[in-house]
Amino acid sequence: MEVIELLLVTPLMPSVMNELEHSYRVHRLYEADDRPRFLDEVGNNIRAIATDGHAGASAQIMDALPNLEIISCLGVGVDAIDLPHAAAQNVIVTNTPDVLNDDVANLAVGLLLAASRGIVAGDRFVRDREWLEGNMPLMRSIRSKPVGILGLGRIGKDIAHKLEIFGCDILYHGRKEQPEQPYRYYADLVAMAKDSDYLIVICPANDETRNIVDRQVMDALGPEGTLINIARGSVVDEAELVAALRDGRLGGAALDVFADEPRVPEVLFTMDNVILQPHIGSATVETRQAMGDLVIRNLALHFSGQPVATPVVAG
Ligand code: NAP
Q: Are residues 239 and 116 in the same domain?
């Protein structure tokens, strides 16, 4: 039987790599010292790419693989894959939606609670022995508070359901209203930010959403407002975010994602009203395994002549 050759762009979890090694001849791009030469040597034989949402797959890589049929991506965000280029070459792209909703939404809710109750600041307060000098200032309840969700998609809806239990008032913005949803729709993001105490960003990163959370949105959220970004760094204008926090025009931020990961603007390290996370939205053993299983399943379906389970659909 023909062994299918696969390009692994970046290391994935050991269990997923083992499965891939079992079924394919795996070429590890990330181990090559001279990548163009490596691709030159193996490119003709490769029919599949396995990658993740961070490493993606560039047009340059695709151009080096004339027999490429499928890119199987671990992660739901496919902004690091050149989708128009893949479409032009008739390459199927798959991602791992839904299986990560629960854990990503949990992180969003965790960040909202951490920001409103000062959980991270409280930890520092105890460790720094400030408690010995007196109590921490009172923080804020989230019951009845307006929470704006930018992107009421698969993950956004999960966040909204979870926040209903906390008694939050849910608002949302997207390109179109979803009349079947019980939440208040805003066609205008600035208007929603103005009416929100917390703004949770969970829309895809693309040309349309680049810096969609700009100075105007942050000023509308205001000095009492908190921005929570668990989407992608590019969706928020990071320079404006730093300026708004520094000038006190924005109350606080809880960030899982950044413009140039893993580099984070150092000035944020000094701000007590900021919570920083190393892009861990889906990073649990259970969810990453489910994502890995889907990466493998999509490849197996394609190479057994069946439609893939979770194709990326443009738009
Ligand atoms: P989804 O189901 O496709 O939902 C995306 C939502 O964003 C939709 O409700 C869509 O509504 C809205 N949207 C799309 N384009 C928009 C625009 N130009 N302006 C305003 N709203 C827009 O996606 P998902 O599965 O929930 O995932 C969302 C994103 O979360 C992913 O793309 C990924 O980047 C990010 N993510 C991050 C992590 C992490 O580790 N931090 C983990 C998983 C996912 P309309 O169609 O009405 O505009």
A: yes
Domain around 169:
101-276
Substitution site in 83, 155, 282 for ligand 1 pocket (most atoms within 8 Å of beta carbon): 155
Is 10 a domain residue? yes
Displacement of CA 312 from its chain's centroid (Å): 16
- How many Å apart are CA 118 and CA 109, to the nearest integer? 14
Pocket test for ligand 1, best of 155, 190, 203, 236 (most atoms within 8 A of CB): 203
The predicted model scores a pTM of 0.97
**15-73 pLDDT, tens digit each:** 999 999 999 999 999 999 999 999 999 999 999 999 999 999 999 999 999 999 999 99
Q: From CA 293, how far away is CA 66, in angstroms rounded?
A: 27
- Judge if 113 and 206 occupy the same domain: yes
Structural domain includes residue 309: no
